[in-house]
Write a structure and sequence with these properties.
153 residues, mainly alpha, Four Helix Bundle (Hemerythrin (Met), subunit A), 76% helix, 0% strand, elongated, binds protoporphyrin IX containing FE
């Protein structure tokens, strides 16, 4: 009898600790996995990646996708502004004027990317599929050149 009461007491005390874990375990995992280790620059790049992927599909039908195109482009503009304000990684040992020039180059690369996004925005507002394709291709090559110079050194 004493043992049963003790067991009941232990169970009652344990419920507030165990319940949240049980509820959590029962939830389907729908939230994206956020990597706490990512820097603001890396997070901005992830937004650009998602945006570029969406654009690839959306530009095929600018009339039907105008609203979504504009939302996507706005998210990319905001990501570029974040990236522009962040310090970029640089080659080990680089310092002084070389480093200053490297940073100027990086910022210039970001500004050029921004211009391509603006061209995409203008083309989206004009529902101009051809101009969208041209600006999309320019965005893609700017990404390649940005990574060659400033990421893969
Ligand atoms: C649409 C264009 C672009 C896309 C989709 C893109 C995408 C990405 C992605 C997915 C990463 C990896 C992020 C991570 O580690 O989680 C990255 C890293 C990086 N990108 Fe871009 N990028 C673009 C344009 C650019 C441009 C124009 C530049 C330079 C001017 C640039 C510079 C960098 C740098 C420096 C990193 C390394 C960041 C770090 O690890 O700290 N990217 N980018």
């Amino acid at each position: 009898m004493y043992n049963r009461k003790l067991l009941l007491l232990v169970a009652l005390v344990a419920i507030p600790f165990a319940a949240p874990r049980i509820v959590e375990a029962a939830q389907p995992s729908v939230a994206p996995v956020i990597d706490d280790e990512d820097t603001p620059l890396q997070e901005a790049m992830q937004v650009l990646k998602k945006g570029q992927r969406s654009l690839k599909k959306l530009i095929k039908d600018p009339a039907a996708n105008e609203a979504e195109l504009l939302t996507t482009l706005a998210s990319m503009e905001s990501a570029i502004l974040t990236a522009l304000a962040e310090d970029t990684p640089h080659p080990d040992g680089m310092s002084g004027k070389d480093l200053a020039l490297f940073k100027v180059g990086y910022k210039g690369g970001m500004v050029t990317l921004f211009q391509h996004v603006l061209a995409l925005e203008e083309a989206a507002l004009n529902q101009d599929a051809e101009a969208l394709k041209v600006a999309y291709d320019e965005l893609s090559s700017q990404k390649k050149s940005g990574h060659e110079h400033f990421r893969d050194f």
